[in-house]
Amino acid sequence: MADEPATNTTAAQSQPSAVPLGGSVIPLVNKLQDIFAQLGSQSTIELPQVAVVGSQSSGKSSVLEALVGRDFLPRGNDICTRRPLVLQLLQTKTDEEYGEFLHLPGKRFYDFSEIRREIQAQTDKEAGGNKGVSDKQIRLKIFSPHVLDITLVDLPGITKVPVGEQPADIEARIRTMIMSYIKQPSCLILAVTPANSDLANSDALQIAGIADPDGYRTIGIITKLDIMDRGTDARNLLLGKVIPLRLGYVGVVNRSQEDIMFNRSIKDALVAEEKFFRSRPVYNGLADRCGVPQLAKKLNQILVQHIKAILPGLKSRISSALVSVAKEHASYGEITESKAGQGALLLNILSKYSEAFSSMVEGKNEEMSTSELSGGARIHYIFQSIFVKSLEEVDPCEDLTDDDIRTAIQNATGPKSALFVPDVPFEVLIRRQIARLLDPSLQCARFIYDELMKISHHCLVNELQRFPVLRKRMDEVIGNFLREGLEPSETMIGHIIEMEMDYINTSHPNFIGGSKAVEIALQQIKSSKVPLPITRHKDGVEPDKAPSSERSLKSRAILARQVNGIMADQGVRPTVEVEKVAPAGNTSGSSWGISSIFGGSDNRVPAGKESVTNKPFSEPVQNVEHAFAMIHLREPPTILRPSESHSEQENVEIAVTKLLLRSYYDIVRKNIEDSIPKAVMHFLVNPELYYFLLICSTN
C-alpha cells in the first residue's frame, strides 16, 4: 500500500560507516538552513544542499519518493512541482515515521497523504490553482529510520509550452529560478534525464553545464531505463562515455503511471527495480551505478564530502558575521526597562545630538573632515563666496540697452516739461534692478536650509541606531523646525528688498549725485571721441577751463531737452537771470527731481512761457486758409518707439543715467550683502535650535 514502510533494501544498511558522519554534520547544516530560511533574503551565507533539476515528466518526483520510501508528492498529468520543495531527510533510531513543515512548527504528519494535501494547499495558496509557479520555498522534514541524512531541493520542471495561468515566458522564469539555486558553489546538482530521450538534448545537463562548467558538482540520474527501445541500453550513458561527469551517473527504474494508479507500493517498486538490473546482463559490473539504494548512498557520501570541503570557508564566514553582529549588538547598549531610566537615556541622547549639531555649525566638532568643508564652514562659504561674490559680479546696466534707457528717459519727459529730469527714469530703472536681488537672496536662504538639513543627518549619535523610530521622529521634528525658520527668513528678505525699493535715498553720502554724473559723462564721451557742441564764453575760455561754478552751471544746462525739435535752453544762463524769469514759489515735480539729485533748488522757466516772452513780433495771424492747402495730420501709431539714431544730447543723458544706476546699485548691493545673511542667521541658524530638542523632551 501507499503508506507501507520500505524494507531494509534501502540505503540505510548499505553504508553503515557513512551514517555517523552524515548523522552529525548534515543535521547541523539542516538547522542552519532552517534559521536562514526564516531570515529570508537577509542571509548572505549559502549552505550546502542538493538541488534536483530536470525537464517536466523526467521522473524527478518519483526519484524523491523512492529515496523517502513513501508517496507524499502531488501527482498529475501536468507540471507537479510549482514551488521549490526543500526536503530534509533525517534518520531516526525509532520506528516512527512522520513529517514536519517549517510553516507549521510542532505539528507532526504521520499520514503521508496529509503531507501531499498540505503541499498542494500551500502551492495553490502561493502560486494559484491553475498551474502557476512561485519561487517561495516549502520546507519539509521527514523523520524515518529507513532514510539517510540528505537535504534535497525539488525544483519545478523545465517546461516549453505555458499551460493554464502560466505566463508566456514560463520557461525563462523557471530557468531563472533553477539558476538561483544551482549557481551557488555550495550546491550539488542532481540532473535527472529520462533514458528514452537523447542525452545530448537533456535540459537538465544543459542548465547544469552552465552553472557548473567544470562538472565538479553535478551528478547525473538516468530514469526510465525499463522503457528504452528494444535492443538499446544505458550502459554507455552510465559509464559516462556519451557526456562525461566527474561525479558519474546512477540509473534508476521508477514506478510507471499505471503502477501509481493501481497503488503499487514503493517497496514493490524497489524489488522490481532490483530484479530488472539483475535480469539484464548488460548492467553486470555496474552495481554501484544502478538502483535507488545506490543513489541514496552515493548522495550521502558526496554530500558529506562536499560539506567537509566547504566547511572551513563556511566557518570563517560565520565567524566574521558573528563578530560584526557582536559589534552591532554592543553599540546598542544596555537594556533600560524603568521609566526613569528610559527618560534619562532619552534626555542624554537629545543632549548629545544638540551638542553635536551646535559644535558642527560652530566648527568645533572633532570628527569633522580634514579633506572637505563641512558644517559652519559651508554656511560661511555660501554667504561670502557664493552670495556676496555673485552680487558683486552683477552690472545693473547689463540687461539695459541704450534704447531701453532712452525710452525710459523720454517716457519721463512730460508734455509740459522741456527738461531732462534724471530722477524719474533713474528711480524707475533702479527699482527694477533692486527687484533682481530678491531671487538670489531667497536662493541663499534655501541653500542654508539645505545645509542645516545635511548637518542634522550627519551629526546623528551612535545611540540613535538603537531607536529607528526615535531617529525618524527627530528627523521630522528638525525638518519642521527648520521649515518654520525658513518661512520668516524669506518673509524678512522680501521686506528688506521692498524697503530698498520704497525709499531711494539719493542723499546718501556715497551716491555720485547728478552734477558729478554729468561731468563724468562729459569726460567719458569726450574721451570716446564722440563730437559734442563746444560752447565758448565771450572771453574765449572753453568750458573745461572754466571755473568750477561755471562748470556746475554747464552741467545743469545739459539737462535742457528738446521739445518738438526746439531746444528749451540753448545756453548757460546766469543764476541771477534764471531767478528773475522763474516765478516765485515754483514747486513742480521736475524741480523736485533736479534738486534731489543735484542737491539744490533749480527753477526753470517752462518752455511755453519762454517762447511767448521771446517772441519777436505779435502781429495778428492772417487767414491762411486761402493761401495754403488744408494740412492733415497722420494718425499716431499704436506703438511709438524712439528713433534708432542717438543725438549727442541723448548720449549724455544715457551715460548720466548709467552712472546714477551703478552708483546707487552699489549702495543697495552692500546693504543687501550685509542684511540678508543677518536675517538668515537670525531666523534660520538660530542658537535656540541647539536646545530645541531638549525642550521638547522635557515637555
From TrEMBL:
DNA repair recorded as keyword: no
Protein name: Dynamin-type G domain-containing protein
Taxonomic classification: Eukaryota, Viridiplantae, Streptophyta, Embryophyta, Tracheophyta
GO CC terms of this entry: cytoplasm
Keyword Nucleotide-binding (UniProt): yes
An example Gene Ontology molecular-function term: GTP binding
Alphabetized Gene3D superfamilies for the sequence: Dynamin, middle domain, P-loop containing nucleotide triphosphate hydrolases
Domain annotation Dynamin-type G: ranges: 44-312
Protein family (similarity comment): Belongs to the TRAFAC class dynamin-like GTPase superfamily. Dynamin/Fzo/YdjA family.
Organism for this UniProt entry: Citrus sinensis
Pfam families attached to this UniProt entry: Dynamin_M (PF01031), Dynamin_N (PF00350), GED (PF02212)
Family annotation (InterPro entries): Dynamin, Dynamin_GTPase, Dynamin_GTPase_CS, Dynamin_N, Dynamin_stalk, G_DYNAMIN_dom, GED, GED_dom
Key words of the record: GTP-binding, Motor protein, Nucleotide-binding
